[in-house]
Structures are given as structure tokens and as C-alpha cells.
Design brief:
disordered C terminus; four-stranded mixed beta sheet; alpha/beta; single chain; elongated
Amino acid sequence: MKRVTLFVNGTSSNGKVVALYGSLTDLLSVASSKLGIRASSVYNGTGGLIDDITLIRDDDVLYVSEGDSFDDPQDDPGCPDWFQTHTDWLTLNVGGCCFTTTRSTLVSKEPASMLAHMFRDKDVWGNKQDSHGAYLIDRSPGYFEPILNYLRHGQLIINDGINPLGVLEEARFFGIEQLAEQLENLIKSSQPADDHSPLTRKEFVRFLLATPTKSELRCQGANLQGVKMLCSNAEGASLRGCNFEDPAGVKANMEGANLKGVDMEGSQMTGINLRVATLKNAKLKNCNLRGATLAGTDLENCDLSGCDLQEANLRGSNVKGAIFEEMLTPLHMSQSVR
């Protein structure tokens, strides 16, 4: 539903905000009732006579007369500054393409945006203008148009052939946060569903508890950020390429877990706690174990080739028969290893 502000022709006070519906005749009837006049004509802010209600945009300021010609309200000595800003038309030259709009459109809906700061007060930012007086903005016009329309009527509309990712980048550039959120949701919902997407941490734990034969457990590429599996049994499971690293810094904890024969090749396990866990005959080739706690861990016959073990704690671990060739970084084992 659109809404407009109505003023008696030639004035800038005692305006009325009304809902726009039906025909132009309906609008004149509402104007007569609200303004106490016999309304017969409607003008826009530049004096254009409106004869089609579809030409009226949301949040427009209109002037209603009893048949007399347009009288510029800015000639009214009582005209407030905000009113002049609301009706101030300007042209933007965006990447060589010109857009005409009102200052109100640029500042009202997203008052914290870059565009609002640029055009809220005249000439404060020293905006550059071309030879025709249009304000120069060095951005893509195709991506800017949906943003301007959003500021006009609050709806996200993207024409065919326009990549939403480009519009999202512009929304972020101009600091229009609500629009950016809508675009992110649109892009996410338009992506095809992946029937083979990795398990989440909760799904993995539920699956682990429900699977009696762990060698049947296949969770390659699972997202196990910060998972807690103390003393769990995942013997023989396949966890290749899993991610145990949490960007928030929460460390995965698998202390005391039974991981005999587990295949975790290529997994990201920075800072993971595997203290006193059993990894006998496990495959940890090319894993990232930087800063991991492996104190007291049974690593007998474990394949650790290509692993990053920088700053890992291996104190008291059993590395009998373990393979350490092709390690990316040297072990930092200031403590003893049995």
C-alpha cells in the first residue's frame, strides 16, 4: 500500500498523510475530506498536473487545488527546511547513466546509509557534478537501479540479466543493511539443494550414537567445528576431510575417544584435544594438527605423514611404528615421547 502527504496548493503546513488506493477520483474525495476543500486537481512537487493515479509513487508529496493553477509552496515564507529537502529533485550520474530522484528518496528510508550522508545536507560532502549538474557516482548503473527502486518503494526487484551478487556488493558499498540481508537470503534460497552436503556437528553426533558398527560410519567432509566427543567410540569410521576448526576459537574435544583405525586424512584439526585417545592404526595423513593436544595418545602405527604438528603436545604419547615422513613442519616436542 502506498501512502502520500497532501497539502493545500501553495502551502507547506497542516499536511495530511493518507493511504493511496482506488482511482484519482477516490484520492480527490479523500483530499476534500482531509483538507476541507473542494479538491479538483493534484500536482506533484514540480507543478506537474497528475491525471493518472499510477504515476504517484509511495511517499510522494502532493498539492491539491480547487481548480487553480499550481502555486509553488517554497514561496511560502513559513516553508520549513525539511520540506524543501523532501521535494528537492536531483540527478545522479552513475557510471554514465543518469537517474532522477528526490533527495528524500535517498535519505529517508535508510538514514544511516552512505547515500543518505552524501545528500542529506546540500553540498556538505562536496559531491562532484558533471557539466549538466548531475552528481557523479563511479559505480555500476545496472546494479544501482534496483537499489534506487528499493529506496523509492521498499521492494527488492531485480530485472532479468542482473546478477544479484552485483546488487549485493553495491548494497554493502552504500551501507544499505536491510537490503543486503534480503539479497543474501535471495541468493541463498536460489542455490540448488545439495543432497550430499556435509553433515553438521549435531547430525554427526546423532549418527555416531545411532550407528552400532562404526566402520560403517562415513562422514567425509563433515562440518564438526568445536565438536565434543569425549570417550566416544568411532573405531574404524571414515572422517576424511572433516573440519574440526571453529572460527570462534572453540576447540574440538575428543579426549579419551576410541579412534582405532579411523581414516581422518586431510582433516583440519588445529588445536583439537585428543589427549589419551586411541588412534592406533589410524590414518591422519596430511592433517592439520597444529597446536593439537596429543599427550598420552596412542599413535601406534598411525600414519602422520604430511601432517602439520607445529606446537603440538605429544608428551607421553605412544608413537611406536608411527609414520612421520613428509611432515610439513618439524615437531616441536620439548617434552619426552615414549
